[in-house]
Write a structure and sequence with these properties.
Chain B: It is found in: Cell inner membrane. The complex is a heterodimer of chains A (82) and B (614). By secondary structure, chain A is α+β, with helices and mostly antiparallel strands. Chain A has one domain: SH3 type barrels, CATH 2.30.30. In chain A, 18% of the residues lie in helices and 37% in strands. Chain A has a six-stranded antiparallel sheet with strand order 1-6-2-3-4-5. In chain A, a hairpin with a 2-residue loop joins strand 4 and strand 5. With 614 residues, chain B is an alpha/beta fold. In chain B, the strands form three sheets. Chain B has a seven-stranded mixed sheet with strand order 2-3-4-1-5-6-8, with helices on both faces. A two-stranded antiparallel ribbon of chain B has the order 7-9. In chain B, strand 10 and strand 11 form a beta hairpin. In chain B, helix 15 runs parallel beside helix 26. The longest helix of chain B has 35 residues. Chain B starts with 5 loop residues before the first strand and ends with a helix. At the A-B interface, helix 1 and strand 5 of A face helix 3, helix 7, helix 8, helix 13 and strand 12 of B.
């Protein structure tokens, strides 16, 4: 099953299946790569975007980063079917 | 030829570089600036086991050699030998977080490509162990082809091994220039993952503590409540904890003035020493405890990892005015002083957001405003209670802080719609693990801030106070004429008074705002100087607050308070803004809009208070 990271369930680990780099600015794309985000990397939504907005907290490998909604929407993750 | 080898500490943000730098150099540090930029240069001396000295430089944290902010640019330029005012380092110590090896190794691999002598300090190895990780440092060293030393900087562990390894690499041959670097970091990332997987022997789930705390701290309801409580405790402590030390400084100042009066003959030099230097500088140094308490909290919040969580929580609110949570950290620092606040804005990637943050930072109520606020509130606002545990004086002070914040919000909103219009840079930040702060590192940070403040008090503030005392004392007024009006300073103030009179300012206030251009707190020492020069026998020795209460109306005092919420009266801030924005254009915009706001709001305050019959 594959969907955007923005729609992922909290605390469920998935694997990045694709990233829509075109939806990101060059600076955002560069920072994501510096955070180690790439196809095949393990990610987990630690804290989703709140009802009033604000960033999400996402675990990438062994680090947790803050990402705004549009970035989590550009990341597609594959999660094992329940 | 340089006799002392230069070694640079490099690494990702949150790798513990500064803790390692403090552990290796202790208090033998020098904080300066790289020429042309406001990025601080932290350098210090250490000695190898054979006694050879080393100059160690702590570089700003960065994820790669492709910079996205001015401080990351400095790191890249230093390691490539292209930074003006810095020689090419003889060796690099790359600090990597052992508990986040995959990510930090990527930068190690990119730096290795430079071909410079280097060592990897596998820092926070205790945290990795706590997470259940076992790392084979020898296997890692073999895979990377460079020495790897495990360290726990905050506990000073592994430092002997690091010094021994450093002595080894410095004995080896030194390539003349760094090799070319590759900017596409994806293949470094894949190689880093492969090397990390081979070097990590065990890896169960980790960071349970940080995740557990984050569940509460980042909670949509509990998170903002915790942040508000932290802020409240911080600002309360600034006042409550500083009472006693302020009393000690005032006692020392009084003792010095009395001793000088008792032992020195009555002449020009004695007056200059007592009225100009001891009382003038003393009225500013007295705020050192409050500044140190504020910095204590800021350093503590940074060291524990909470500061980034505060930025996370504030991002929603900040995005509403076209900024991001990143701007929260410089703005919070600006409550202590706008200078480190403006300098902290260099970590903001987006140039427009960074510029907006710089332009609104002077609106945060810095500690230099406290002397002005404290004197006027004490003199004009009655010390009555307006609710359980809430005094009217404290409430007015709180209102002045809020006025500054609202002013900054409005200014940011207008700037982002006009001068700094454009898409924002977003908010992408690493949330580091929580950790116990090293008290020693916090104390070193406080010592550096105290030294900068005292140096300022001993140079700019003392110079301006003495100059004002001279200008306000001469020429000596004939009998029946007020000295503050007859003197050179008085005549200049009379010219300015024409402009400031409509908003309720009197002659003494017009005189005080001129030297206060150097620093806001000088307004207090300037008023003290003017009134002590003018004082008759009955008024001599009377506290400044009592003199103001007797001479000023309430609307006038309120107008003066409103003026200081906005007025950009700080030459150091203007100088830092000029350096940080590479020219005079933006500091001039800042000066014009803040003075215009100060004039308008002081006027509105004065006219409204007068109309209400206050």
């Amino acid at each position: 099953m594959s969907h955007s990271l923005a729609r992922a369930s909290r605390n469920v680990t998935g694997t990045v299946s694709s990233i829509d780099w075109e939806a990101l600015s060059p600076a955002e794309a560069r920072r994501l790569r510096e955070f180690g985000l790439d196809e095949g990397v393990e990610v987990e939504l630690v804290k989703p975007v709140g009802w009033l907005g604000g960033p999400a907290a996402v675990r990438i490998g062994r680090m947790t980063v803050a990402l705004r909604r549009h970035i989590t929407e550009a990341i597609k993750v594959a999660v094992p079917a329940e | 030829m340089n006799a002392v080898p230069l070694v640079a500490l490099v690494g990702n943000p949150n790798a513990g570089k500064t803790a390692l730098f403090n552990a290796l150099t202790g208090a033998r540090q020098k904080v300066g600036n790289y020429p042309g930029v406001t990025v601080e240069r932290h350098a210090g001396r250490m000695a190898l086991d054979d006694g050879r000295p080393i100059e160690l430089v702590d570089l700003p944290g960065t994820y790669s050699l492709d910079p996205s902010s001015p401080d990351e640019q400095v790191t890249r330029d230093v390691v490539l030998g292209k930074q003006a005012g810095e020689r090419l380092p003889d060796a690099l110590v790359v600090v990597a977080d052992a508990s986040n090896l995959e990510n930090h190794l990527r930068f190690v691999l990119q730096l290795r490509q430079l071909g410079r002598p280097m060592i990897v300090a596998l820092n926070m190895i205790d945290m990795a162990t706590r997470d259940g990780l076992t790392i084979d440092a020898d296997a890692l060293s073999a895979a990377l082809g460079v020495p790897v030393v495990t360290t726990v900087a905050v506990r000073k562990r592994g430092l002997d091994d690091l010094r021994a390894a450093l002595a080894g690499v410095l004995l080896g041959s030194r390539p003349a220039a760094p090799a070319e670097i590759e900017s596409d970091i994806r293949h470094f990332q894949r190689e880093a993952r492969r090397i990390a997987a081979d070097a990590i022997v065990e890896q169960p789930g980790g960071r349970a503590f940080t995740r557990g705390v984050d569940r509460v701290v980042l909670h949509p309801v509990a998170g903002p409540l915790i942040l508000a409580t932290v802020m409240l405790v911080m600002f309360q402590a600034v006042y409550a904890w500083s009472e006693a030390p302020i009393g000690w400084i005032e006692g020392l100042q009084g003792w010095l003035a009395e001793s000088a009066a008792a032992y020195l003959p009555e002449n020009f030099l004695r007056d200059l020493l007592i009225e100009g230097i001891i009382n003038g500088v003393g009225s500013v140094v007295v705020f050192l405890p409050q500044i140190l308490i504020l910095f204590f909290f800021i350093l503590l919040l940074e060291a524990t990892g909470y500061m980034v969580r505060a930025a996370f929580l504030m991002d929603r609110l900040m995005s509403g005015i076209g900024l991001s949570g990143r701007a929260f950290i410089p703005l919070l620092s600006s409550f202590a002083c706008a200078i480190p606040g403006i300098m902290a804005a260099r970590s903001i990637d987006d140039p427009r957001e960074r510029l907006t943050t710089i332009l609104i930072a002077p609106l945060m109520t810095c500690s230099a405003r406290l002397p002005v606020y404290a004197v006027l509130i004490g003199a004009f606002i009655p010390a009555i209670s307006v609710g359980p545990g809430i005094g009217l004086q404290g409430l007015v002070l709180f209102g002045l802080y809020v006025a500054g914040i609202l002013g900054a919000i409005a200014a940011a909103f207008v700037l982002r719609m006009t001068a700094t219009r454009g898409k924002g840079g977003g908010f992408m930040m690493e949330l580091p693990r929580y950790q116990l702060p090293s008290i020693r590192d916090v104390l070193i940070g406080m010592w550096q801030r105290a030294w900068l403040f005292l140096r300022r008090a001993g140079t700019i503030i003392m110079g301006v106070t003495v100059a004002l005392w001279l200008l306000a004392s001469y020429p000596v007024a004939p009998e029946g004429v007020k000295q503050s009006e007859y003197s050179i300073a008085g005549r200049v103030a009379s010219g300015l008074e024409v402009v400031l009179k409509p908003i309720g300012f009197n002659h003494e206030m017009s005189l005080a705002v001129i030297p206060a251009m150097a620093a806001r707190e000088v307004a207090v020492s300037a008023l003290q100087t003017v009134y002590s020069i003018d004082a008759d026998a009955d008024e001599e020795g009377q506290a400044l607050g009592a003199q103001l209460a007797a001479r000023w109306s309430l609307p006038t005092a309120l107008a003066f308070l409103a003026w200081f919420v906005f007025a950009p009266q700080c030459l150091s801030t203007i100088a830092v803004a000029r350096r940080e924005t590479n020219g005079w254009k933006w500091p001039i915009v800042m000066i014009v809009y803040l003075f215009a706001a100060a004039y308008v709001f002081a006027g509105i305050t004065f006219w409204t208070a007068t109309a209400l019959g206050l």
